[in-house]
Design brief:
Elements (H helix, E strand, L loop, with lengths): L9 H4 L15 H6 L4 H8 L9 H17 L8 E5 L1 H4 L12 H12 L7 H15 L12 H4 L9 E6 L1 H9 L21 H7 L1 H14 L3 E6 L8 H4 L11 E2 L9
Parallel strand pairs: 2-3
Antiparallel strand pairs: 1-2, 1-4
Helix pairs in contact: 4-11, 9-10, 10-11
Length: 263
């Protein structure tokens, strides 16, 4: 064994430190294969060379083009704190998003996505049942949803997204000065529950960053969502909204300008 990740068996890459959800259910090789992830992807995720769903070269371009867009918006790297949130950075979705572990739960979630859509054909039904059986044949199942599981179960129509959290005093001050904010009767620029600056206002002062997110949504085939906060980020609202609180955490995935020596 040379040590290169692409020469390591998946079972070795998933070895300790174990990847597990809150219930202690370990991410298995079967779960990894089910969502079309490989040992290289997990190794890159562990080393923070790339989040789930990207390879390192693409992730470096993802980061470099973000900061290029920020520069066009008049922002230097020291003016912004940028973090990747969500399952692409931590494997699992929040505790509030349970993985359907029983057939009736799966049918309920699947039914929600079929509202207003034509009934599946016989071929689609067979494909759906096959996906269901391929995952559920292997037990135990995780309590929380691993990255891309819901689309692989044919429940969600779209892949897991990338949530980009941008925190900046400079952006916040520009938003405060934006004439667009006068459209709000209370003159507030922040969402009262989650603390982010309203997209309508934020996009008016960092238009290039929002354009960047749209371009990468197309390039990756999965949504890239930008939410903007003041310099200290969102408040810790765990007591009020639980895992939905997006406050700064020590283990957060920081997005930085790539090191040219890694190219």
């Amino acid at each position: 064994m040379t040590g290169f990740a692409n020469e390591i068996d998946s079972a070795v890459v998933l070895a300790p430190p174990a990847i597990a959800d809150d219930a202690g259910i370990r991410l298995s090789v079967h779960h990894l294969n089910f969502v079309a992830l490989d040992s290289q992807g997990i190794a890159d995720w562990r080393a923070r060379r790339a989040p789930l769903g990207m390879r390192p070269a693409m992730y470096r371009e993802f980061c470099s083009t973000f900061f290029a867009a920020a520069h066009k918006d008049g922002l230097g790297p020291h003016d912004i704190d940028v973090r990747l949130k969500g399952s692409a950075s931590v494997i699992y979705s929040g505790r509030h998003k349970r993985l359907p572990t029983e057939l009736n739960e799966w049918r309920t979630e699947f039914g929600k996505t079929r509202l207003g859509r034509p009934a599946p054909t016989v071929a689609e039904e067979l494909d759906i049942v096959d996906s269901f059986q391929r995952l559920y044949f292997h037990q135990p199942l995780p309590f929380r949803r691993p990255f891309d599981t819901m689309v692989c179960l044919k429940i969600d129509r779209e892949k897991s997204d990338y949530d980009i959290q941008v925190s900046s005093d400079l952006i916040e001050r520009r938003c405060m000065d934006s004439t667009i904010r006068h459209a709000f009767d209370d003159w507030s620029i922040h969402d009262p529950k989650y603390d982010f600056i309203y997209d309508l206002i934020a996009s008016s002062v960092i238009n290039e960053i929002y354009l960047w997110s749209h371009r990468w949504t197309v390039a990756l085939g999965r949504s890239v969502n930008v939410k903007v906060f003041g310099a200290t980020g969102p408040r810790n609202r765990t007591a009020q909204i639980g895992d939905l609180s997006s406050h700064f955490r020590a283990q957060d995935w920081m997005i930085r300008i790539p090191n040219p020596q890694e190219d």
